Amino acid sequence: MFSVSEVRVRFAPSPTGYLHIGGARTALFNYLFARHHGGKFILRIEDTDTERTIKDSAEKLMEAFRWLGLSWDEGPIVGGPKGPYYQSQRQDLYAKYAEELVAKGAAYKCYCTPEELAAEREKARLERKAPRYSGRCRSLTPDQVALFEGEGRKPVIRLRTRDEGVTVVHDLVHGDVTFRNEEIADFVIMKSDGFPTYNYACVIDDWQMGLTHVIRADEHLSNTPKQQWIYEALGAPMPKFAHVPMILAPDRSKLSKRHGAQTVEEFMDKGYLPEAILNYIVLLGWTPPDATKEMMTLSEMVELFDLDRVSSTPAVYDTTKMTWMNGQYLRMKTPKELMEMYIPVAEKLGLATEEELRGRGTWLRKVILALRERSKTIDEMVESSAFFFRSPHEYDEAGVRKLFTKAGVTELLRKGAAALDAVQDWTLENVESSYRQLIAREGIKGGDIIHPTRLALSGKTVGPSLFDIIEILGKTESVARLKAAASYVEEKGLEGSKKA
């Protein structure tokens, strides 16, 4: 479709916050497209909006990129032949080309005050018309310019647009999209403070950086006719445009904080894996050739990705699916890899120090393996492992009502403790055998003792295999917890009651 040497794409975030999941998806599409075609992926920081720029935000964005495993070929830190890669360091370029556009008549200086522009908008509102700049400064005389400058007015620079006809955007995702020129008034390309507007700065940068394709979010499609006019006014080669679909909440509304985590950093902090996030977001608006294929490595995505399989309809964001996918990737990790992820989170939650955890490496490996199949994130794994480190301070309320109120439960818990205390060679097999023998001697169902034992040892009604729990806790701790639970039932007068 494209020659290897021609593809150059970019992701150009504004440093106004963290890396949103939608931005990460757009960046990933650009990255995959570049890698698939052997081209270049450029990172550019659009930091000319000084009011919204947040300190250190660019650094945090780049940290998120590195964590995801998305490396850029040109941009901050790595450099490149088309820099600088911060818009704030490219001001001279914007001013230079803006003056050239003014000199050739494609743009002009506008001295209208905010009050005059507000009056125009109010007039349009009263006439029930769409607000549109009148073009009153298109043909100022030298005397008028001198008068305005004498008043101390600082001009903006506007691009001279077309009043008739249509502009067609040839989009690689949406096909041909037509815009009526009369609906787009002369727009500002340079503000009165000397800073460029978004539509103008990104054109200058994309042109100067030799971009062949601009792959970005759907919300920018309406900006594209303006940008095409700027390319034409400059006499610059125009890249191909591809606008990828919006990402909506499960109820198909616009994503908001009420829908949960939305930034890469939030998922990072919650114990998600970068490969799971990438695998999930690549499927938001793109379908692989084999539509049934869900699990893909980054290298597989590179091999399969192309724009012809990107949808033009919005994608629905579902963290439940991402969490499921994360669990699948978690189970692919080796015990050693899981341990390295587990230790810092466990230390942060106060379960033990890193030194203590590493000193109990063999034991910790058993804990992790016992929990791996049931855990969907590292955080979940660590939180659900807390009972291995300390006795439960309380028991699941529903479990207490169901299990600790049954007649004979106190005696069964103490018999369970005695059976475990009698085990000489503490192995998983011997632990299970002791309980199976107890069940047979008592003539009871396995669940009659297994379920209250689980609650006594972990404080929960669900979790890893009971016998894995007992073997990992060890004889002394298991026996002590069973006796403690029996005493708790007695003290609370639970046995034989209908409610806890």
Task: Note down, in words, how this protein is organized.
By secondary structure, this protein is mainly alpha-helical. 48% of the residues lie in helices and 9% in strands. The chain contains 22 helices and eleven strands. The chain has helices at 21-36, 57-68, 91-103, 114-126, 142-150, 198-208, 224-234, 264-269, 274-282, 298-304, 319-332, 335-348, 354-359, 361-372, 378-384, 386-389, 397-404, 409-421, 428-442, 446-458, 466-473, 475-492; strands at 8-11, 40-43, 107-110, 156-159, 166-171, 175-180, 187-190, 213-217, 240-244, 247-248, 315-316. The strands form five sheets. Strands 3-4-7 form a three-stranded antiparallel sheet. A two-stranded parallel sheet has the order 1-2. A two-stranded antiparallel ribbon has the order 5-6. Helix 7 (224-234) links the parallel strand 8 and strand 9. Helix 6 (198-208) packs across helix 7 (224-234), helix 12 crosses helix 15 and helix 18 crosses helix 19 (428-442). It starts with 7 loop residues before the first strand and ends in an 8-residue tail after the last helix. The relative contact order is 0.08.
Radius of gyration from the CA trace?
32 Å
Q: What proportion of the residues form beta strands (DSSP E)?
A: 5-15%
Strand order of the biggest β-sheet: 3-4-7
- Count every beta strand, where a strand is a DSSP E run of 2 or more residues: 11
Helical content (DSSP H or I, runs of 4+):
40-55%
Mean pLDDT score: 94
- Low-confidence spans: pLDDT under 50, at least 5 residues? none
CA-CA gap between termini: 70 Å
Shape designation: elongated
Q: Total helix count?
A: 22
Structural class: mainly alpha
The largest β sheet comes out as: 3 strands, antiparallel
